Amino acid sequence: MSDAEIFGQSLFNIIQFTIWGILSGGIYALVALGIVIINKSSGVFNFAHGWLMFIGGLFFWQVFQNGASNQVTVGLSLATAFLVVGAVMTMGIGVTTVQSATREDKKARSGWQARLEKTGRKWLGLLSSRRFQIALIPAIIAAVGMAFLLNQEESKILRGAMAGIVGSILIGMFIERFTIRPLLGQSLLTAILMTLAVGFIIQGATQLIWGADERPIPVFVEQSEKKPISVPTGIDENGKTIYTVIGYDILPPRALPDYVVNTKSALGEPLRFPRNLTWGFAIAISTFVGFVWLFQYTSIGLAMRATAENQILAESVGLRVRLILAIVWGTVAVMAGIAGVIQGTGGSGLSALVIPALALRVFPAVLLGGMDSVTGALVGGIIIGIVEQLSILFISTTAAQEFAPFIVLIIVLYFKPTGLFGQKRIDRV
Amino acid sequence: MKKHFVILLVLIAVLATIALPSALANRPTNPDRVVNQQTGRTECAVNLADEGISEVSFFHFGDLSGPYRPISQPLVAGLTDAMAYFNSEEGGGGLCGAQISMVYEDTGGDAAKSTEYWADFTSREGNEKPRIIFLYSSTDAENLREQAAELKMPILLAAGSEKSLYGEDQTPGWVFAAIPSYVDQMGLFCEYVAENWASMGMEGEPKIGHLSWNIAFGQSSDTAETRAYCESLGVGYAGAEYFLPIGTPDLSGQLKKLTDAGANIIYTTTLATGSSQVIRAVVGAGLQGKILIGGPNWILDTSVYGLAGADSDGVIGTLPYLWWDQLDNPGVQIVNNAWVTNRLSVATNDEERTAAFLTRNIAYLTSWALLDLWIDVMTRAINEAGSFEAVTGESIYNLFNAGYQYTAMQGMVEYAFDANTRSQTHAYVGAIDFVEADGQVQPTIGPLTELRELPDLRVGGADVPQ
Fold it and tell me: Which CATH number does the domain housing residue B61 bear?
């Protein structure tokens, strides 16, 4: 069996390259999912997605590599508390709005609280609501828990993940609030151009804050004793070189080899699974399952679907479209950050050259699966991954990256213009 | 009669003894032969202050905020520190009595902006007009090659693609590279492999697979000439895979294809992220120690071991200059002292020290030699022309063409150009080495060979096998 050949390639190579295609397709799918979800909920094609990947990765890296300073700990803990309060206050958003909840609470409030609301300062009214008081308890627990996790010396990945998640949610909601929300009701083109501008702003901001250097994320590496890294900085009077210690943790340790499955007897060689791609694929699948569950079985998912279908109609039935969009942007920013970190754990590190461009490279996957289909994003990503890898095997990398995915895309769109899983819309005139 | 003749001879001899030295003293000196012992640079015969010029600008532009910023920003940091040093008395007091300033623009990697800044710089008049423009990337140089010849504006280039230097028609143009061309570097690498393969402990006959970026720079090492030259030395060719520098998640497939074709050497013409991806792919496949990784000068850089860490130990490349660790060289000492004073000493925490460490790289180091080269060639041009105003782009071009040699930074880099040569002709072969000493890890880059002449492997080059 190990000698079998198809079109001049061994069976082993075809299986191995297909596996690599599925795994790298998982990364494409994770990125494509984020783009599709934004597009599905707001109709906007998010050109800033790549930069969300980059900045999410930088949030992770900052705390993963350097630990959390006191300011970062306080800031992220407060942000966590804020998000928990927000989550509790907006629970059941699909069926009961915050406004109706506050009306219920009105009865239980004292005179000065009612007066405050009358003066239009509703936010203060919100702060005094029962729901807020209930939310404070988990918020405080979450904030303390966050402070604890951020200061874990032993678990760099966990503390980095916490920082990445909270930072990404905040940046996603910030973008929605200050760049997308003001454009509601304007033409979609304006919003799309705005996402381009947001990308440039993140690019500039990351350079100002983190500088120009590429940052390795050494997650899949050997655990070794930390030794000081030193460089020669001068020569003493006796002609001896003076070395200065720069730091202890500034160079990544040796990387671990791929996961290996011993298939030597069956296929002639062991199958290899690159660690970052394997984890990326697992996370992509988990995220996909999570989103299908969210969309299909939760009230907020229902609200998201309704918003995606028709924002005006959704608003008219009491759904808080703006809040839903904020949640969507926060969630998508987290997904983008995860994709950025996974790509950063590969050899390229967190690079402004490599990471944001990955979002542009998944466009064929998005179009292939269908612009508004979560399933399509997953399937499209994996198909493009497989097409690329098999093209590398049978033709060349150049063909695989610059030619083959687009040929497949054109063929699919010729027969199914909405993509494999895209919805066909009929506008009645 | 004989007595008168003898007296006449004595008189002539006396007159000659008196007159000749004064005649020699009045004869115009050859400025190129008068060297400032302190800096090793050509001595100025003209004081620009007398011309009312207090400042002369060094012009450059390139991608400072876009994808290549990790390389270009340390370059500007190095140029800034170098300028301050060269303007000081210790560094020679500027250019012939005038202070050096920098005029530069950021293209963000946008080719349209490169064209715009080129037009802006070259349209300036009088003393504000550059006499030579420094560019960072092969792509910009290739795009502006024709315009440079048309406007008679020489380009000093930090990169070395053959197309930018010689064009499609193999004509030496107005672009002069500060490093060896990539084809020549590839040839030197093959020479080293052929000479040392037996002692490297590798299996089989040496066979190279190219795993490089799918851009002009990445594809510049693999030509029919380099293949023929390497094969003539017994170094075989397994193929080439070119991947996009942006957004390529993994290189396992490309590596497998090349190793299936028999490659036991992977040569990568990439910058930091690309080289690191190649190294990580080799480690991931469990092939470390079984595959030799090599590349042009850019692979021997802090940015590579900063990303790949100890996995980059043993990577081999061309080293056309002395590296930071060769502190016995006075030029390297000057750069090192400036880096310690301006970058390392001002870092107050681990994060800032790491950032300072990353500026201790190829771009910061070579920027000093580039500025030193610029001062020297400008000095020679001013000496020849008699004034700064009389210096033109053509004067600089003619100087290079007439056979220009300069040892920059007191031995750190050897530059040599002539009518037929547009890039460096000598280099070491070097390697990344992670040394453990006194409980510390010292990542170093050092030469494995003596400084040696590179083969000439451009199309029709002298060393291309017939």
Answer: 3.40.50.2300
